[in-house]
Amino acid sequence: MPETATPSRSDDLALTEAGSRPHSPRKTRLRAIGVLCWLLAGSIVLPLPLGAAGGYLSYRAGDQDASAVLTYAAIGIPAAAGLMLLSLVALRRTRREQAALAELRQAQADRIAELGATNERLNRTIETLEGDKSAAEAASRAKSRFLANMSHELRTPLNAIIGFSELMRGELLGPLGNPKYRAYAADIHFSGTHLLAVINSILDVVRHEAGKLELQEETLAVEDVVDEALRLVAPQALRGEVEFRWQPPAPALPQLYCDRVRLRQMLLNILSNAVKFTEPGGSVEIKAALEDELRIDVRDTGIGIEPDDIARIMTPFGQVASMYSRTHQGAGLGLTLTKALVEQHGGRIALYSAPGVGTTVRLSFPAERVMRTPEPVDLAIGQGASS
């Protein structure tokens, strides 16, 4: 429903001031003069009935003294003048109040007209924004459909390329002849596998944006999934001469309720980036701990990231322009997909880095996903209490 403009507190104060301008010190003085007039009229009018009563009694007694008549006239004339003055003062005050009320009504009418114009502008703006939002949503849906269709269309021939290159690389149907053919087949297999991984990542991001990324959840040991991810990244670390440091915590962590494949995928993305951007001789350390949440930290001694670039690399296809990003393969979807997956679990990702120091990526899973074991009960204490 379109929002409407309503008078704010400042508007109310403006209207109040507009209507209260006549109530100035001048009006206070006029009120004081009015009170004095009332007192004067009262002091003059009050003797009038008394004089009239005395005159009536003198008339009944046959006293026709002229001095009594003059006294009554002297009292009655000022009383009438006082009443006339009082009426004039009251009339002037009434006119001023009517003028102030008319000014207040005019100010209110002007403000209402101004609010009406503002409200009309707001309605037009809302209509424009709603149209832009609908267009953006339609474009997003079209993009998602296009990427989903293209991902499917690309994966089908890629599977054939990977499969045939695997046959040629292994020479299952006989020798290829020239040894370079075997190397070419290996390159084709590697490139096809890499491209397939990129397409799968794009498809996962599209599914997340469309709200169709589903989880196959189970209760599992975090240490086992970390071991699986390390074994998969070990060849890459060996080629890059990067050392892994991982010591499972003792005692063991409580089990975590999550998607095993997706958790391993998150760790693979983070570990692969850590190895990729760590120079030979460096190290990557993995730690897992339970506080209020279950946290998994991956810290490397790599080149690090500028603080201003952290937000950029968390966006789809976001990369930091450097020698490493230009010479190392990657589409810039790893952290984006990891962020989507951990948020799908109700958790969050945090990244801490500085150039030349290294980078730490932290995955945090909420406490409700941690399967805590109940504390053991001391039966001896329980028996003593019951006895």
Characterise this structure.
The strands form two sheets. A five-stranded mixed β-sheet has the order 2-4-5-7-6, with helices on one face. The protein has a three-stranded antiparallel β-sheet with strand order 1-3-8. It has helices at residues 9-20, 25-45, 47-60, 66-170, 179-209, 222-240, 260-276, 307-313, 323-327, 334-344, 379-386; strands at 217-220, 243-246, 255-259, 283-290, 294-300, 348-354, 358-365, 370-371. It is of the alpha+beta class. The two termini are 68 Å apart. A hairpin with a 3-residue loop joins strand 6 and strand 7. The model is unreliable at 1-5, 13-23, 320-328 and 379-387 (pLDDT under 50). Helix 2 (25-45) packs antiparallel against helix 4 (66-170). It folds into three domains: 9-135; 146-209; 217-371, Heat Shock Protein 90, CATH 3.30.565.10.
Q: What is the H/E string?
A: HHHHHEHEEHEEHHHEEEH
Q: State the end-to-end distance.
A: 68 Å
CATH architecture descriptor text of the largest domain: 2-Layer Sandwich
Largest sheet: spatial strand order: 2-4-5-7-6
- Domain module tally: 3
CATH superfamily of the largest domain: Histidine kinase-like ATPase, C-terminal domain
The whole-angstrom Rg is 46 Å
Global structural class:
alpha+beta
Tell me the number of strands.
8
Portion of residues within helices: 55-70%
Level-1 CATH class name of the largest domain:
Alpha Beta
Could you tell me the mean pLDDT? Answer: 76
Please, how many helices? Answer: 11
> Can you summarize the main beta sheet?
5 strands, mixed
Strand content: 5-15%
CATH topology of the largest domain: Heat Shock Protein 90
Q: Which word captures the global form? A: elongated
